[in-house]
Amino acid sequence: MMNYFDSVEFLYALGNEMRGAKLGLEPMQTVLDALGNPQRHGRIVHVAGTNGKGSTSAMIASGLKARGLRTGLYTSPHLHQPTERIRIDGKPVSSAEFAAAFDVVHRAADRLIDAGILAVHPSYFEMVTLMAFHIFRDAGVDAAVYEVGLGGRLDATNVVMPELTVITPVDYDHEQFLGASIELIAGEKAGILKATRPVVIAEQQDAALAVIERRARELECPIQRTSELRPSNVAMHELGCRYELGSLAVECPLAGEHQLRNSLTAVLALRQMGVGDADIASGISCVRWPGRLEQVCDSPRIILDGAHNPAGARALASYIRRFFSGKRVGLIFGAMRDKSIDEIVTTLFSLADQLILTAPDMPRALRPEAMLDFTASKDVLIRRRLPEAIEAIEGVDVTFITGSLYLVGEARSLLLQ
Hints:
The protein has two domains: 4-285, UDP-N-acetylmuramoyl-L-alanine:D-glutamate ligase (3-Layer(aba) Sandwich), CATH 3.40.1190; 292-415, Mur ligase, C-terminal domain (Protein-Tyrosine Phosphatase, Chain A). The protein is globular. The mean pLDDT is 94. Helices cover 38% and strands 18% of the residues. The protein is of the alpha/beta class. It starts with a helix and ends with a helix. The longest helix has 20 residues, at 95-114.
């Protein structure tokens, strides 16, 4: 049996998560059959979308836990360690549990390959998804929330038969896999819908909503829309928001206007799952979702945000304009080579009084010099690595570290030690 570090090294050796993605469900089902179909265990919520699906999933899981259910949460990517992807009652599984699950899944896959039943070893994402199914069944969770990794229709998580599906806002991301139009991307996300199973739909662009609702009608899925909710007494602040929905008072500790929308989606999902308003309020009030508008340092003031696609960049820009208008803002930005950053940097760079370009400590990182074309009208500093970029902060009231979740994870490790 491999130990934790060996299992993680093996997973990393399977290749980059996105480039190595093998979209399709038959290999997953083959391995699941050999494992006794753990994906069928417990009550399941399946969450797809472009932005907000991780934080929405975390809020739903927190509400289910507040209800008294032993709750699993499967999300991606991780910020520090792969164990973060598989959580039970809000806590990552231990390294020993992770390694044990890896061993079970890896051995099953090898047996199937040796027998000529499986053509190739499961990918990184497929492996960890299979491990989550196995861990949640063995731990006896009552309910599990699964966040889609990429798209929906052909994502490895789409082997589940959920009690409820949820679709958060759809926007442009991973167009090389999902299509170059909102309609095509929405079609892939709507691929998680299952016949007659209810769906909660967050506020969407009209084009995305039309695609999702058409598919829901074809499958006779009852539809609930967050656009029909009318929160009152809404109060936004730097660290979150509060509002009321009739007698339900919600205090959301996740920052940004987009988290108000995500929490409304979670409220609808939790009500659909039979969770009462008191447990909904309790669950949402204690949710944590690191690396998304997370303040990690007071002096200098530093906020982390994984704004790694256009919609995320717009949400961050809205937050900066709302709460830091008139303040001097610093921006430390680093990205990966496989990301289309044009719209992201166009949205963010103009807001920075001090702009520092750097790179995540990863082989696929985009060289900071490659972003200089977007900074023609600004003074800009280039620092090869994040520690040097942080040391260069000067003359600003607040600095945002953003652009890549890898960079955000690196910053959390550096600043929260």
